[in-house]
Specification:
Helix content: 40-55%
Mean pLDDT: 94
CATH architecture of one domain: 4-Layer Sandwich
Structural class: alpha/beta
Largest sheet: 7 strands, mixed
Strand content: 5-15%
Order of helices and strands: HEEEEHEHEHHEEEEEHEHHHHHHHH
Radius of gyration: 24 Å
């Protein structure tokens, strides 16, 4: 794996903003995305503790540049790993200052998410290695001490602070609304640099209409300033309402288009091939296919209404992968013809078609020169395909797959104890 791509993995999670005040007593703190801190009159309420290590320590230093008030609460914008792995450092900071531990506040679904992550820790580590090559999650989850369902008003002397449930990227995503200041912190519900990452390849469903409804709820607040998860601070009320409402309308458009095609009996792959995207419709910076992608949304919508079967009868009760690959291999009289066709497609830039062709040999479990050659070519094609696709996540999938193939096996089981 190239060091350049590992740097990209780090950059994709970097906040857009430097540490700075948004208003009197309200601050952005760069973390894994833009974290947020609000003075209440006699204390500070923080949203997200950061990934730990140097990033969280710099958050603490930045906050202390602005205020010396104690941190009384840390709110979890959502339960994804990396956003609150730094909680223990913040609590240690409070202890060193002879202050009470901060109350840890999250949506009630966060507790279920953390239980699931602990149960599937091996899987979560593998997924992280594939999606973020070169990065290792701390897996330092600390359960919240206070949870809520739909809305929570925090006690504060100088300003009203409300936490809102805005299910979106996760079912435990929350936003912070400061009605007296007109400031909305949207967190994961509005990334600000990419089309909503619904349907991302290695994660659970994210439910398109539910995300649209969360955008509509936030748009209805009439915010004058918007702090996005990764994008820059927006301080134009008209633009804020437009961004949130337009995103919701786009997500509803996706739902309508996919449902129309499902009602005609089209399969997932047929719908993907048939979808038409107006370039002007998605040409806004916050809808770029930088992390999420239109194709991901289509697949997630299809998954909402359909089972796991891809409608190919061959896959309904499949043979063992090694047996199927061996049977295909035995049926190929001239392996060189497969290589020739794959290389011909490669030369014309049809890398995806070349991948389909080389799989006739590359999926074989045989340990011989032909399989090695096929896997080598497939690894090269994966790296070339990574340059053709738009979203970071797809690039990471291709890059990680190439790494596995170069190690001699496409199986992910080696990632449990092996390298990234």
């Amino acid at each position: 794996m190239s060091s350049d791509f590992e740097q990209t993995s780090r950059t994709i999670l970097t906040a857009s903003e430097e540490a700075k005040p948004v208003a009197k007593g309200v601050y952005i703190l760069p973390a894994q995305g833009n974290a947020f801190a609000v003075e209440t009159g006699d204390s500070v309420v923080l949203v997200d503790a950061g990934p730990g290590g140097g990033v969280t320590r710099r958050m603490i230093e930045s906050l202390r540049h602005f205020t010396n008030l104690p941190v009384s609460a840390i709110c979890y914008s959502h339960g994804h790993l990396g956003y609150n792995d730094g909680v223990r450092l913040w609590q240690q900071h409070n202890t060193e200052r002879n202050e009470a531990p901060a109350t840890l506040i999250a949506h009630e679904n966060c507790l279920r998410r953390y239980r699931r992550y602990r149960e599937t820790e091996g899987l979560q580590r593998v997924l992280a290695k594939v999606q973020f090559p070169g990065l290792t999650p701390a897996f330092a989850m600390v359960d919240p001490t206070l949870t809520f369902a739909a809305r929570l008003s925090l006690p504060a002397r100088s300003r009203r602070i409300e936490l809102l449930w805005v299910p979106s990227e996760t079912d435990d995503s929350i936003a912070m609304w400061l009605p007296d200041d007109g400031i909305l912190y949207a967190g994961a519900a509005f990334p600000g640099t990419t089309i909503p990452n619904i349907g991302t390849p290695l994660r659970t469903q994210r439910f398109t209409l539910r995300w649209a409804e969360s955008c509509e709820l936030m748009a209805s607040l009439g915010a004058r300033k918007l702090v996005q998860e990764f994008g820059p601070l927006i301080d134009d009320p008209v633009e804020i309402e437009d961004r949130l409402s337009y995103t919701a309308s786009i997500l509803r458009w996706f739902r309508q288009e996919v449902v129309t095609r499902m009602n005609l009996g089209m399969s997932e792959h047929e719908i993907l091939a048939d979808m038409k995207y107006d370039s002007k419709m998605l040409d806004r910076p916050y809808l770029a296919a930088r992390y999420g992608a239109p194709e991901y949304i289509v697949r997630d919508l299809f998954r909402e209404e359909n089972g796991w079967w891809d409608r190919n009868p061959t896959s309904l009760h499949p043979a063992a992968p090694a047996s199927a690959a061996a049977a295909i291999r035995a049926a190929i009289a001239d392996p060189d013809a497969v290589f020739k066709q794959a290389e011909a497609l490669r030369k014309t830039g049809e890398i995806q078609l070349a991948l389909h062709v080389i799989d006739l040999l590359a999926l074989s479990d045989d340990d011989d020169a032909i399989t090695d050659r096929a896997r080598t070519l497939k690894a090269q094609l994966c790296r070339e395909r990574a340059k053709q696709v738009r979203p970071y996540v797809s690039k990471a999938m291709y890059e990680s797959s190439a790494r596995l193939l170069e190690r001699g096996s496409p199986s992910w089981t080696g990632l449990i104890t092996g390298g990234s």
